[in-house]
Amino acid sequence: MDRIFASLMNLRSIVTFLVFFFPLTVSSFDLIPAVFTPFSEDEIGIGKLDTSKVIDYAKFLKQKQNISSVFVGGTNGESLSLTLEERKTLLEAWVEAAPSIGGMTIISHVGAESIVDAIALASHAKSLDGVASVAAMPPTFFRPSSVSELVAWFSPIAEAAYPLTIKYYHIPSMTNVAIDMDEFLVAASSAIPNFTGIKYTDTDLYTFTKCVSLGVGEMFYGKDETLTSGMLLGATSAVGSTYSFLAPTAWSAVHAWESGNVKSAQEYQGKITLLINTMLPYGGIPAQKAIVKMMGLDLGNVRLPLTALEEDQEANLKKDLNAIGFFDW
Ligand SMILES: CC(=O)N[C@H](C=O)[C@@H](O)[C@H](O)[C@H](O)CO
Ligand SMILES: CC(=O)C(=O)O
Fold first, then answer.
1. What is the β-pairing status of strands 39-40 and 48-49?
2. Ligand that comes closest to the CA of residue 107
3. Among 35, 37, 109, 225, which residue has the most ligand 2 atoms within 8 Å of its CB, making it the best to mutate?
4. CA–CA separation, 203 vs 177, rounded Å?
5. What are phi and psi of 85, to 5 degrees?
6. Which residue ranges make up the annotated binding site for pyruvate?
7. Residue 81 vs residues 6, 8, 33, 191, 203: alpha-carbon distances, Å
8. pLDDT (tens digit, 9 = 90+) per residue, 60-116?
9. From the alpha carbon of 74, which atom of ligand 1 is closest?
10. What's the rounded Cα separation, in Å, for the pair 224 and 271?
11. What confidence tens digit (pLDDT) does each residue in 234-257 have?
12. Is 321 among the domain residues?
C-alpha cells in the first residue's frame, strides 16, 4: 500500500515537473476533412448513395487520421450532384455515426442552386441534434454579382440556420462567383447575426490577408497545398479534401508551425504539395477516393459526370505514390 502511495506521489511530481517545464499550449487550429460521399453500384451505373459506409469512414478518420471534425457535403462530397433528400440522408448518417467515435464536430454544407433548397437544408441541419454549424457556397448558374446581392441571397439561409452559426464558402474556381471577400466580410458581419466568417478556397492571399486584418470572423483555409501559408496569414482552421488521408502529415505541418519550427513545417508542407501534384493528374475526387481505397477504406464510386479511375490508372497512381514514399509517411 505504502509502495503504491509512494509511486503515486512520484508520478505526481513527474507530472508537476512536466507541466511546469513544458506548459501545454493547447492549439485550437483544426484540420477538417471535406469528406467524400460514399456510393455503391446500382443497375444504371450512376452510383447509389451508400450511407452504410459512413461509420467506417468516421472510424478511419478518428483512428488513422486523428480527426474529430468533418465538413459534410461540400465540393469533394459532390453535393451539387446529390438530390436534396440524399443530402439530408447523408448528413443524418454522419450525425448518427459521430457517437461511435466519441463525438465529432460536424459542419454541414447547405449551399444549393435554388435558395429554397439551401434554406431547407439549413433548417434540416438545425433540426438535427449534432450539427455544429453550416456553410454555404453561392449558386453557380444565376450568380450573385455584387456584395449586396450576395448578402441578400445569404441572409435568409443564415436565418434558417439560426441559432447555428454559418460561414460563407468562397471557392471561385468552381462557382465563378469572384466577389471581393473583404467587402463581403464587412457587409455580412454587420447584417447577419450568426455569420462567423469565410471558408476560403482561393490562391489570392492578398485578399485573404485583408480579410484577416479586418478582425471580424474566422477564416477557414481551403488550399491544402499552401496550408502553412494560410496559418502564417491567420487562418483559424483548415478545411480540405486531403485531410481524409494525409492528415498525419498535415498535423505534423501544423504542429511544427505552431512550435516555431519553420524548417520542419516547410518540409511537411512540401510533402503535402508533392502528394497533391502526384494525385491531381489522375483527377481530383476520383483519385483521392482511390487513395483512400488503397489505405483500406472503400468508399465506392463517384457520381456521373465524374468517373472513377480505370484499373490501370489506379495501378499507375499507386506506383507514383509508392515512388514518392507516401505509404510510409
Ligand atoms: C478546389 C477544391 O476542391 N478545393 C478543396 C477545398 O476547398 C481543396 O481541399 C483541394 O481539394 C485540395 O487543396 C487539393 O487541390
Ligand atoms: C475541400 C472542401 O472544402 C470541399 O470539398 O468542400
1. antiparallel
2. 2
3. 109
4. 14
5. -60, -40
6. 239
7. 63, 58, 19, 31, 25
8. 999 999 999 999 999 999 999 999 999 999 999 999 999 999 999 999 999 999 999
9. 7
10. 11
11. 999 999 999 999 999 999 999 999
12. no
Pick from 37, 80, 224 the residue to mutate for probing ligand 1's pocket: most ligand atoms within 8 Å of its CB.
224
Number of domains in the chain: 1
Nearest ligand 1 atom to alpha carbon 280: 15
In this structure, which amino acid lies at residue 221? Answer: Y
Which ligand neighbours the alpha carbon of 285 most closely?
1
Asked whether residue 18 is assigned to any structural domain, the reply reads no
Q: Is residue 74 part of a domain?
A: yes
Q: Known catalytic residues?
A: 169, 199
Task: Examine residue 214 and state whether it is found in any structural domain, yes or no.
Answer: yes
ipTM: 0.95
Distance, in Å, from the CA atom of 109 to the CA atom of 155, rounded to the nearest integer, reads: 15
* Closest to 221 in 3D by CA, of 207, 206, 248, 202: 202
CATH code (residue 45): 3.20.20.70
Binding residues: 239
- SS3 category, 196: strand
Question: Which atom number of ligand 2 is nearest to the Cα of residue 76?
Answer: 5
Centroid of ligand 1 to alpha carbon of 241 (angstroms):
6
Q: Which domain holds residue 191?
A: 28-261
